[in-house]
Amino acid sequence: MAWTNTSDMGKIGFPTWAKNLEKATNGKVKMVTYPAGVMGGAREAYQQVVTDVVDISWQFVGVYESTMPLVGVMMLPMVQPSVPGNAKIASRVLWDLYLKYPEMQKHFADVKVLFLHAGGPSILMTAKKKIMVKDDFKGLKIRSAGGTGAEWLTKMGASPSAITMPELYGALQTGVVQGALAAWDAATGFKLEEVQKYYVDEGISGTAFFMIMNKQKWESLPPDIQKAIDSVSGYAGAEYIGQVNDDAEAASRKKVAEKGGAEVYRIAPEELAKWKAVADEINKKWISDMKAKGLPGQAVYDDTVSLLNKYTSK
């Protein structure tokens, strides 16, 4: 099994999930884990499962968005809100969508999907300039993971930068970039709280991930072992990993608050509406693109928004 070990998911979430799987099968299945990069790069992860290089693998959907576009709905700008428990909520929504839409299931036709999950949404963090209105973005270079998040930044007047998270600390410190779109747990996971001051606590863009298994290996297992693996997968796996993300976010928020000197704030409703209008343009294009591919983008988008609101309000 291969995954990244540079986050709480890799250091806590996935090892614990693997142990839970072993326990569920009464030790009949043993998990041997490999950190990211040992078995291959992110773009090889899916095919390595298909070809049985590894039995199970985890990866970011954004790397494969062209082949599993409907799952990208959770990565659209300003869809996933920044609220307590957002990763667990969004993870449940992703699994709801997967179970409902055969078109999404077809994205993974040649593997066994154990679960899909989301991380916390990316918020806007800046080092020196406090962003309050759309005009404040002009002239700023902001780190982004790419995709529709980068498109949103461009439409807001900023210049997105694709530098990696390990490079971000130095880039903020030297002014190569002035801010970043990143999840809360990245703030302290990469020690960014040392070089940035302002945190716009609004969900700007989201994330989606998959945990998949070799299909032939799955089909070779006896029914009782399949049932045991399913017991820690599906909703159970998605919500567990989502909770790990939420716990990491809560710890990061606490650390930033305890350090002092930072300002965490929301955008005024009338101004936020302007930000969402920019996001709506991008999301409508995504829906149109899905329709052109014969995919139910509008229905998936509407269900995503509806379910996020439903679970958030509970």
Query: In total, how many domains does the architecture comprise?
Result: 2
Total count of helical runs of at least 4 residues: 12
Q: How do the SSEs run, as a string of H and E? A: EHEHEHHEEEHEHEHEEHHHEHH
Instruction: Report the structural category.
Output: alpha/beta
CATH superfamily of the largest domain: Bacterial extracellular solute-binding protein, family 7
Biggest sheet: strands, sense, closure? 6 strands, mixed
CATH architecture of the largest domain: 3-Layer(aba) Sandwich
Q: What is the CATH first-level class name of the largest domain?
A: Alpha Beta
Could you say what the CATH topology of the largest domain is called?
A: D-Maltodextrin-Binding Protein, domain 2
Strand order of the largest sheet: 7-6-8-5-9-11
Mean pLDDT metric? 92
User: What share of residues is helical?
Assistant: 40-55%
Silhouette: globular
The Cα radius of gyration reads 19 Å
Which strand-content bin applies to the residues? 15-25%
Structure summary, number of beta strands = 11
Structure in words:
This protein is α/β, with parallel strands linked by helices and about 325 residues long. The protein has two domains: about 1-120 and about 205-250, Bacterial extracellular solute-binding protein, family 7 (D-Maltodextrin-Binding Protein, domain 2), CATH 3.40.190.170; about 120-205 and about 265-310, D-Maltodextrin-Binding Protein, domain 2, CATH 3.40.190.170. The protein is about 50% helix and about 15% strand. The protein has helices spanning about 10-25, 45-50, 85-100, 100-105, 145-155, 165-175, 185-190, 215-220, 225-230, 235-260, 270-290, 295-310, and strands spanning about 1-5, 35, 55-60, 110-115, 120-125, 140-145, 160, 180-185, 200-205, 210-215, 265. It has a six-stranded mixed sheet with strand order 7-6-8-5-9-11. Helix 1 links the parallel strand 1 (about 1-5) and strand 2 (about 35). Helix 1 (about 10-25) runs antiparallel to helix 10 and helix 3 (about 85-100) packs antiparallel against helix 12.
